[in-house]
Structure formats: C-alpha cells, structure tokens
Amino acid sequence: MAKEELLEFEGVVTDVLPEARYRVKLTNDHEIIAYTAGRMKKNRIRTLVGDRVTVEISPYDLGKGRLVFRHKDESSSPPPSGASRFNKGGPPKRR
Questions:
Q1: pTM for the full model?
Q2: How many Å apart are CA 70 and CA 8, to the nearest integer?
Q3: H/E stretch holding 22
Q4: Is the CB of residue 56 less than 8 Å from the CB of residue 49?
C-alpha cells in the first residue's frame, strides 16, 4: 500500500458534532469521526443526520476520516419546474 493511498468507505451520518464534524456509521458497522472536505465547504454542501456519504480514511488512523461526497437520495424529488423561492410569480415591482 502506498503512503498516499486512502481507504474509501460508504456510510450514514448518525450524529452532527460541533466544528463541522460528524459521527459516521460505515457499511462494515464501524463508527468513525469525520470532518467536511474543503471542496464540500467551498460549494456549501450541507450534510444532515441520515445522509449517505463517502468517507476517505487514512490507513494510519482508522478512527478518523474526511467526508468527500454526499450521495443524493432517489426518494427526494426535485422542486417543481418554474418554481423559485425568489420569483413568487410575476415581474418585480418598480418603485
């Protein structure tokens, strides 16, 4: 195994902790503490309890990891087309 090689696992967020950390239960029933990757912070991707995520873990410390991807659920439906929270129907009013 190369020094830079990371282990990738899928899991489910079980708890949201302070300072952008999460408790994640992996598919192999291990629980780890994970932090949000910089790209997820930059793109403001929110992670909640119950979200399915991909975690990278260093082979040197198997108790800590980094959240690198939040999977989209198939059950959640996209917002209706044409609807926007900013455009509530009609053109903006002039003053």
A1: 0.69
A2: 13
A3: strand 21-26
A4: no
The residue type at 65: G
Q: Check residue 14 and give left, alpha or beta (phi > 0: left; psi -120 to 50: alpha).
A: alpha
Helix, strand, coil percent values for the chain (each to nearest 5): 5, 40, 55
What whole-number distance in Å separates Cα of residue 82 and Cα of residue 13? 32
**Shortest CA distance to 21 belongs to which of 47, 3, 44?**
47
Q: Which fold, 7-70?
A: OB fold (Dihydrolipoamide Acetyltransferase, E2P) (2.40.50)
- Domains of the chain: which residue ranges? 7-70
Q: Are the C-beta atoms of 66 and 54 separated by less than 8 Å?
A: no
pLDDT (mean) for 69-92: 64
